[in-house]
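Quick sanity check, Serine/threonine protein kinase:
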Amino acid sequence: MADLVKSSKAGDEAGPVARVGSVIKGKWTIEGLLGVGGMAAVFAASHRNGQRAALKILHADFAREKVIRERFLKEAYVSNKVNHSATVQVLDDDETEQGEPFLIMELLEGDTVRDAWKKSGRTMPAGRVLQICERVVDCLASCHAINVIHRDLKPANIFITKDEEIKVLDFGVAQMRDATSERTATGTALGTPAYMSPEQAMGLVDQLDGRADLFSVGAMMHALITGHRINNGRTEQEALVMAATKPVPSVARLASQLPIELIKAIDKSLAWDRRNRYQDAREMQRALLALMAAQGAQPLAARPPPRPLEVVAPPAPTIPPAIALAAPPPPVLAAMPAPMAQPAPAAAPAPSFTSASTSGVGTAMTPSSGMSGPSVAPSVSKSVPVQPPAFDPLLGYAPPMAKAPSGAPVAGPIAVEVPENDPRVQTLRDLMKHWDRLLPSVRQFGWAHPATERALRTCFEGFSEALRHQPTVSSWTLRPYSLMTLGHTVWEPTAPFDAIPYNLFACGMRTLRIEPGVSLEEMREFFALCLLDPGRDLPPEDDLAASFWEKALPHVHWECVDAFAEGDASEREAFYGEADELENLASDAARNNTSRIEAKAMALSTDEGAFGKLKERSPFALDEGARGNLAGQLEIAREMWSERYVDALIEGYLDAASNRDAPLVLASLRKSTADLAVVGRIDVAVQLNHALVERLCVRVQAPENQSKLVAALTNAMFGGETLEIVLKRLRDDPSALDSFAMVLGALGPNELQTVLSNVREVTHPELRGVLVGFVEQYAAGREHELAAAIPGSDVDTVSALIQLLARLGTPGAHQALHQLAQSEDINARTEARVHVAPSAEHAQNELAGLLDNASAIVRLAALRTATRYQMRGTWATVARIINGKAFNELGNDERRELLRACLVLVPERGEPMVLDLAKKGGVIVSDNREATRSLAAELLGDLSRSRQVASALLELSQSRWGVSEETRLAAGNAAKRIGQRLVQSHGGASA
């Protein structure tokens, strides 16, 4: 991750934020957090001498890992070795007081290219992209001159300073060509699949050269100009497979309106065979400079003179005037223009678009011809001509026009623009203000809060009233950061709600509408869906479109396209077939010296080898019969796929471990486990862990290596943030506890604090027992941490942890118990005093004295402790209080605990006393006395095993005089429970 990328997860920043204001090594004052990455956090800091710099501090979790520390510090050595003006200079390195290594770096002010790309709506002007990439390639020339390959070039790793200087960030995974420490498949874990060359994705680490970086530059140009990444898989693993197996189609298939020279340059840099790419950075730089001249874009300011020790690659040659003047320089592109109007050849008829919609279900909008048509379309009527929409660079095609039932285009929110002050636009903008009030309330208070309920009802009433008067008013066209209607933006939310249109757009939604008849609950469900975070709230295989489809809201309609506006396989084949026809037309035009403008408009593939080249049948192609015979043999059962996945994962893990890159490989496995935990599929994650561990034990025979690898694997899957998610899920639903208990026992001591913080909030007894068992594994030597977690916990948790300290019997445990005996938490203090008392008699006497304390809280704590530890010597005091005149005036909780203590401490004397209380009524019914009688009956039902008690309670339940209905009901239920207990204890014999 880039140095200055801001994390989207507030929880990830909680630890680094705490550093702000602190002083590192007595000289660096942390001023603010710039960003959080996977391995480190970056801070703005000032030295005591006034110098300002950026401090990149390795996360504490990694500080103890030697391999990760070495890789972290390697960034400093590699970056300084290049010493180009576009690299970030590392001024020094040091360690914090806690032993975390950190780098002192240049402090940059500005934005990453990724941020600039996002602000521009995910499409940047071609001229601007060329300016940025030319500077990047110039830096790569210096890198490659000393055999340094960056390997992770992407928009997030390119920085634009306020002075318009380009900086290449994050040399943490750069490779020295003469290094021998990385071989085989380890390279697949390094880099970003969306910008990765095929040879890097295939793990051919020892074969990488500078052309892999040039491929990444081409991938950046492709993404920044078109808005589409080349390997846009649903998961990182899928994107990696695409990078390793799928050649990149021509960029013309997404943006055929681009200048032919620019298409040619991007396609060449993305060639599958690296021999067909630019062969070095200077060759690519010459091409980019020529393109900039043709675009009328000036190169960014000349780089400053080389710094000391800088390795300077051979200079970029000047551009011959003939090249610079080959075409008249158009103005710098401000955005992707609409495609040029062109004569429609006979082989390329004007296209038509179809759009279907099913209630509540998004259907793909697919081009029937695959290309944008001419700029003239049939009109709605003689008086109101309707123009088709222009090519939309965000969609990658021209959006469809609304259709009347007859098939003729009609005016609608997608196709027709109206004046800014149109009443329909103004009405919808006013309605969207209800969203701006409702969404923050949901985020802050939740759905159950009265303020949220009021905001939701107000929003519902506003939309219902508007829909009664204008049934089509609630119709939107989606854009990545806004909602539009009739050509005008009606809602452009700020963070964090700008994620709503972005997530909807990203899953393929292009239109959305709410129809008359929508209910309040339906609107609540709609907003709940909009607020979902696909990365956090949905499983990897699902997206928002699938969630909308599953809900099937009857009055919410939407339409979807996929990433390339494609339909089913046959439609895609038709599209590519037509693209091939146009490619042939472009070839003929080139041979016949057709004008340069027409050739540019028609070309879809611009590799020079494509012109005039006819497609031939491959000598390796199979005929249909052979293909059919092989298909059945190649089918693999689902179970076999699972086995192969486990085998492949273990082989990759072992290979990475042998090359000391296991932490990086296991990072993706941790993310997958966290995704499963978020959606509650803990059992699936546990089963995967068991399968991996079983296979690992088969592959590795040495017990010592086996235990280390298993521990690292399990901790990677379930440690850290994943454990937090799992424990939160188990607190809400402990059904997966049994399967997870074995995994928890295999985690390391680093998770002790996470478990301690969660056990404080646990009320489920079985989950508490499992967590306390984990704490017991690692409590020795860390008794002070255990003691610190006890005060303020649930009463039963306090007792469980104090008993754990008592069982440890270590000097640290004794010290912790004495400390807790003075705690302000009365439950912890009372429980701890039992264990530090010089004798049992002394403890009983102290508890008996506390039963007469003026504070009800103290009395309750003493009662619970006496009952838990069977302090029979306190029974006399308990009986005296129960028989006292003020007993019925005590609080309900205290009366319950007194009666429980009476029954538990001395059952043979306690049962008759409590039964007498249950039976004792009065001429005048008293609420307090009847509450005591109900409590007495209920506790007898919980604890007694006496047939006589059951008979007496049954008789009480049938009394009609001087007994409240509540007491009769409690007595009847108690008698029934005692009877059931007697049946069970006598092997099913009747009571």
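Posting the structure with no commentary besides this: The two ends are 71 Å apart (CA to CA).
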